[in-house]
Amino acid sequence: MAASPSSASKVGAIAKQQEKFPIFNGRPPKNSGFDVRLFHPAFENFSRRYRDAEELTRDDAAAVHKFLVCSADYYDTEKTRQRAVTPILETLLRHEIGDTRNPDATSADGTILFTTSGTQVPTLLFELKNEIGAGDADATHQVGLLYRKLWSQKKVYHLSPFGALTHKPIRIS
Length: 173
What we know:
Strand content: 5-15%
Structural class: mainly alpha
Largest sheet: 2 strands, antiparallel
Number of helices: 8
């Protein structure tokens, strides 16, 4: 008999449940069911638009597929997921994803920087969770707070919209 949904859906248990009593939701990828286009015409419309997109190369499509398959898999830890997903994201985004630490040693799970006026500034931060709802903090809140902290530093503040207007750093805690 399958475990209750509240206990079976926990991060440590879901992979085992999917082995014993699979639900065909594509997690992991071997647990796939019927083609989703059979259930509603909107999915066929999406597929047609995807096929007709001129901007995407075969390499782009292959990388997106690899990312989706990799993302759908189960991982024991966030670090294991990050090691699997980050190289694919770098390919898709065409940028190296690095680690930028704040003076207080906080950091996002990944950062893309660009250089302007001789200063490296963050353009993208990401917070990777092993599963939605896992961990002690919501990823969307966490990355927003990290972004605020990065942009409030003296070395990049003058480049922000606030710094350009005031030319004085403000304290954000």
